[in-house]
Write a structure and sequence with these properties.
single chain, about 110 residues, mainly alpha, elongated, SdpI family protein, transmembrane, membrane
Length: about 110
């Protein structure tokens, strides 16, 4: 049996895609609000200033969480249950969205 058979492929694939996509978004962020490319939520598309902030912030978060997810692929070498690894990866997919939305709300809080 080869050691590569024990590597969990979901974190390897997801982590790599997050890092590559985050790097591309950081280096080449969309300049204008659009419906095709970039971090697109109702909150990020309200103003150009929000849009610009959310593009850079979400790209950094994607790269950060891609780096966090990537090492989980090696847990398969230690007979760690694959289901647990997949659950961790699924939750990690939503964390960059959550952290970006929290950062947007903090930075652009409406003064009362």
């Amino acid at each position: 049996m080869e050691w590569t058979e024990n590597i969990n492929q979901l974190p390897l694939l997801t982590g790599s895609i997050f890092i590559i996509a985050g790097f591309i978004m950081y280096r080449f962020p969309p300049k204008k609000i659009n419906m095709f490319y970039g971090y697109r939520t109702m909150n990020s598309m309200k103003t150009q200033e929000r849009w610009d902030f959310s593009q850079k912030y979400s790209a950094k978060e994607l790269m950060k969480f891609g780096g966090i997810i990537l090492p989980f692929c090696f847990l398969g070498l230690f007979d760690f249950p694959e289901n647990y690894i997949n659950i961790i990866v699924i939750f990690a997919v939503f964390i960059p969205i959550l952290t970006t939305e929290i950062a947007l709300r903090k930075k652009f809080a409406n003064p009362k």
